[in-house]
Amino acid sequence: MTTETRARLVLVINSGSSSLKYQLVEPDAGVSRASGHIERIGEESSPVADHQAALRLAFKQLTEAGSNLQTADLAAVGHRVVHGGNEFHHPTLLDDVVVAELKKLSTLAPLHNPPAVKGIEVARKLLPDIPHIAVFDTAFFHDLPPAAAAYAIDRRLAERWQIRRYGFHGTSHRYVSEQAAAFLERSYHSLNQIVLHLGNGASASAIAGGRPLDTSMGLTPLEGLVMGTRSGDIDPSVVSYLWRSAQMGVDEIDSMLNHRSGLVGLAGERDFRRLHAMIESGDNSAQLAYDVFVHRLRKYIGAYLAVLGHTDVVSFTAGIGENDATVRRDALTGIGELGIVLDQRRNLSAGTGQIARISTDASPIAVLVVPTNEELAIARDCMHVLAGS
Ligand code: ADP
C-alpha cells in the first residue's frame, strides 16, 4: 500500500552525441527531484567511455543525491527524441519494433537521432522492468498546414525522401503556449500566439487556437533563426557553391553549418553573456553577430504577426529568451504600430524563473517571459501514455 501513496516519478533522459542530461521529475507536483548533466562522453581524456558508462554514472549521482532508482517509485523513463519523422507524432511506448523504426529515422536526422537511440538502448538494458517512452520534438508540429510544411521543390522527390518542414522544440513550444494561456487566464484554444524559444538552438512558432500554423525549423533543426553554432536560414546555393568552388565535401559543409556557424561562426563565441562583454569592449564581430541574430528574430516576429493576422501574445523562453532583456528590447522596440509596446522597466526586472508580463498594460499584444520546462512536459506526456490518454 505504501507505494500507492508515494509520489510517482519519471526519469527524463536527453541523450546527445557527447552529453547526457537527466532529470528525475515528480510530474503531479511539477517538481524536479534531482538532475545532472554528463559531458564529454567518449572523448579521449574523459573518464566516461560511452553512453552506458554515462547512464551508470547518472544512476550513481542520483543515488548519492538520495534517489535510488531501484527503490524509488519510478513510473517511467522518458526519452527525448529529436526527430519523429512522418511515423511518430505522439509519445510512444518503446519496444524492440519501435526502436528499430527509430534507427531507420537516423538517416533523416543523422546528427540527432543516433545518440538518442543509443541512450534508449542502454537505459532499457539497465532498467528493463520500467516502461520506456519516447517523446518527440517534432510531434507538436506534425499537423502544420501543407502551405507551411511543404518546400517548393520537385514534389515526387520530396515524397520519395520525406522532405518536408517538420519543426523542432515542439515540447517547449506547446508547454510555453499552454503556460501563457494559463497565466492570462484565457482558454488555450481562444488565443493566437507567437513563441520565441531562444537557447543554444533557437526557433519561433505561430500558434492559432492551440494549432501550430508555422515554425522556423525545417527538415532538420538547422533552418530559421540564427543559433549558437547553426546558421539558420541561408540561400541553399551556398552549399553547392562551397562544394564546387572550395572543394568542400558534403559532411564538411554540413558540419560547418551545424557546428561552426551562427554566433560562433560570426564572432567565435556562442554565449550571449560573453558576447555582450565583447561588444562592450568594442569587438566588431561580436556586434555583427548580435545584429544578425536580432535582425533575423525581428524578421520572424513580423512574418508570424502576418501569418496569424491577429496576435494575442508573444512569449520569450529558453536561456536567452528568459534572461537577456537587451535581446528582448532590441527585437521588439519600435513596432508599436504592429501592436507591441514593451514596458522597459518590466522587461529589465523579468527573468527570475517566474512567468512575467513585459508589455505595457495598454499594449494590444501581451508580451511574456515564460520559463520553459521540457523535462516536466516530457514527464507529463509519459504519465498520459501510461494512463492510456
Ligand atoms: P540549450 O538547452 O539549447 O542548450 P539554453 O536554453 O540553456 O540552451 O540556453 C543557453 C544559452 O542561453 C547560453 O548559451 C546563453 O547564450 C544564454 N544565456 C543563459 N543565461 C543567460 C543570461 N543570464 N543572460 C544572457 N544569456 C544567457
Automatic annotation (TrEMBL):
Binding site for Mg(2+): N14, E374
Entry's Gene Ontology BP terms: acetate metabolic process; acetyl-CoA biosynthetic process
Entry binding sites for ATP: K21, H197, L198, G199, N200, G201, D271, F272, R273, G319, I320, G321, E322, N323
EC number: 2.7.2.1
Catalytic center residues: D137 (proton donor/acceptor)
Protein's cellular compartments: Cytoplasm
Cofactor list: Mg(2+); Mn(2+)
Cofactor binding summary note: Mg(2+). Can also accept Mn(2+).
InterPro entries membership: Ac/propionate_kinase (IPR004372), Aliphatic_acid_kin_short-chain (IPR000890), Aliphatic_acid_kinase_CS (IPR023865), ATPase_NBD (IPR043129)
Residues bound to substrate: R80
GO MF entry, a single one: ATP binding
Function of the molecule: Catalyzes the formation of acetyl phosphate from acetate and ATP. Can also catalyze the reverse reaction.
Protein name, per record: Acetate kinase
Species, as recorded: Mycobacterium haemophilum
